[in-house]
Design goal:
357 residues, alpha/beta, six-stranded mixed beta sheet, elongated
């Protein structure tokens, strides 16, 4: 007779979340391995063409013939003449770069690498930034194009965006400044028209996995509209997380408009309730993030000046500028030409690892 183990629904949910995390982590590792192998092949072919001094002016015949012969052996691989020239450019662009940059681009999908090369040329720092973002957040080509269009790499944290240094121990404040950013890209929600706060929250809950990737490493989602009941009254936190590194609860308050000073007071109240009702003895002070569409740094600084709880204010890009995005996509289609579908399959599918025949 088979023993039946009865567990509570919350325990089962925890098992399910952990199982999903294991599978997602394994799939990500496989995708990274495939990308790395493809990148290594592109690097070696590019090095071969470079070492043999095959130049575009006189070597088109050689590359065309090489492309034809390689397609006979590997018909599913992207070995068109254009792609072979791109491999040579890839090698020449990064062969003298710092090891950190070479390692970062080595694991990227091929189409992502070509996009970064075209957009940023010799700008090592910007390419490294986007390469790390792609790897850590699993950006597809559309999200990468969106981030480039929005110039995410140019956003810098401003000291007035939070009061961590005044409300947290020095070490924790430094870590908190590394964890939280002053701006977030929520383009993955696919919003094209203005929406209400409740709909914004619903979409973030629906795509909480992508939201966690955008927030960064170490966050665990606890729930939305989290109820805090005290003194006969109920308050609700829009979204509640826990950060393993900071070892504290993180409350996020969503706003569809610009920042207003009264939002800081409301968050200060939420954090007091969290510290009194939910915070455990071994945990650090709860941290609050007000996520709004716009903010004025001076206004934020004044609003947080006398707040006793650690609060940060961040803005977000929600509606991707469609005209700019269409322009970026059109440029990429023109650059990739007929090879675009195959490259898209390589970078986003990666479900088939092509073996030599």
């Amino acid at each position: 007779m088979t023993d039946i183990i009865h567990i509570q629904e919350s325990e089962y949910d925890a098992i399910l979340r952990q199982a999903v995390a294991v599978i997602d982590r394994t799939r990500a590792m496989v995708a990274t391995t495939v990308c790395s192998a493809i990148g290594a092949a592109h690097w070696e072919i590019g090095k071969l063409l470079h070492d043999k001094k095959v130049e575009s002016k006189h070597g088109s015949g050689v590359v065309n013939r090489l492309s034809f012969d390689l397609k006979q052996h590997y018909p599913q691989m992207g070995v068109s003449p254009r792609n072979l020239w791109d491999m040579k450019k890839f090698y020449e662009r990064f062969c003298d770069s710092e090891p950190k940059l070479r390692q970062a681009v080595a694991v990227l999908p091929w189409g992502h690498t070509l996009t970064l090369m075209r957009k940023f040329g010799k700008d090592d720092n910007t390419i490294l930034y986007y390469a790390q973002e792609i790897t850590s957040k699993g950006w597809n080509r559309e999200l990468l194009s969106s981030a480039i269009t929005l110039k995410i790499h140019m956003r810098k944290n401003d000291p007035s965006d939070n009061n961590f240094e005044q409300t947290l121990p020095a070490t924790q404040a430094m870590f908190a400044n590394e964890v939280f950013r002053s701006g977030y890209n929520l383009g993955f929600l696919g919003v094209k028209d203005p929406i209400l706060e409740i709909e914004l929250e619903a979409r973030l809950v629906e795509k909480v996995k992508q939201f966690l990737l955008e927030l960064g490493k170490g966050f665990t989602y606890i729930g939305n509209q989290y109820v805090l009941e005290y003194n006969g009254k109920r308050s609700k936190v829009d979204m509640l997380f826990f950060h393993r590194g900071l070892h504290c609860l993180v409350a996020i308050d969503l706003k569809i408009g610009e920042f207003k000073p009264e939002y800081a007071g409301k968050m200060n109240f939420y954090l007091s309730l969290l510290d009194r009702l939910e915070r455990r003895e071994d945990e650090n002070r709860s941290v609050g993030i007000i996520l709004c569409a716009e903010k004025d740094h001076v206004e934020v600084e004044l609003a947080l000046e006398d707040m006793g709880k650690p609060i940060g204010v961040a803005d977000y890009q929600l509606i991707v500028p469609q005209e700019e995005l269409k322009k970026v996509v059109a440029e990429e289609v023109e650059a990739f030409g007929k090879e675009l579908p195959r490259r898209t399959e390589i970078e986003e599918g990666l479900s088939q690892e092509h073996q030599p025949q």
